[in-house]
Amino acid sequence: IWKRNKNNKGKLYRGVSFFKKKLSIRNRKPISFISLFTLNQMTASVKKESLAQLKTDRKAIERIGFDCADMLITFIGKLNNVCVIAAPEGRSAIKNGWHVASVIAEKIASEMQAVYLPKYFTKKSRNKRENDIVISSNEKINGRLCLFVDDILTTGITAINCLNKLPSPRIAFIAINNL
Q1: To the nearest whole number, what is the mean pLDDT of the chain?
Q2: How far apart are CA 165 and CA 102, in angstroms?
Q3: How many H-runs (helices) and E-runs (strands) does the chain carry?
Q4: 37 with 64: CB under 8 angstroms?
Q5: Who contacts 8 (Cβ-Cβ below 8 Å, separation ≥6)?
Q6: Closest CA to 105 of 72, 140, 153, 139
Q7: C-alpha span between 102 and 89 (Å, rounded)
Q8: Beta-bridge partners for 119
Q9: pLDDT of residue 116
Q10: Measured CA distances, 59 to 12, 62, 73 (Å)
Q11: The whole model's pTM is what?
């Protein structure tokens, strides 16, 4: 993972993590979110820089996905009737050529032996305040436990908008809690 180098302010080094493993449940009415990692205390600019750097390291993201899958298997097991759905793609997917939440969701689905539904949601616009999430897949998910996966919890608006479009039962899982 990444550690901020105090001697050279703009650089991040591999090695020690800038976030820690800490299972938490956060309530953002009307939804509660489960997360496995929590960011350490840091200034907003350092946090933004660190997360941006992390999103470019696919191997680190895959490792996060594996750790998240391991935790979820411990708590809910490998269930036959689970579908894993990633948050809709944002700007980082366009920049990096891959979508962080999708990499995590795919790893979780693979480890849990669950059905992975890629690109289930799309956004009509990039405005985070609008409820502009649409279902873009024909896949039927009724009767399955829906595990919604996103990479970082900030405001929770995207997750709430997506979860409101999913049938129950559903679980919101966010890898890194940014609150």
Answers
A1: 78
A2: 18
A3: 5, 10
A4: yes
A5: none
A6: 72
A7: 8
A8: none
A9: 92
A10: 16, 5, 21
A11: 0.81
Beta bridge partners of 152: 176
Q: What is the dihedral of CA 71, 62, 169, 133, to 10 degrees?
A: 150
Task: Please write the tens of the pLDDT for every residue from 123-157.
Answer: 876 665 556 778 877 677 878 888 999 988 877 88
Q: Are strands 19-28 and 12-14 parallel, antiparallel or unpaired?
A: unpaired
**Tokens coding 148:** 């919604």
Closest listed residue to residue 60, CA positions, set 12, 109, 20, 103: 103
pLDDT tens digits, 12-21: 334 445 677 8
Examine the pLDDT at 160 and tell me if it is beyond 90. Answer: no
Residues 143/32, Cβ–Cβ less than 8 Å: no
Side chain identity, residue 75: F
Q: What is the DSSP letter of 156?
A: -
Q: Report the distance separating Cα 132 and Cα 123, nearest Å.
A: 6
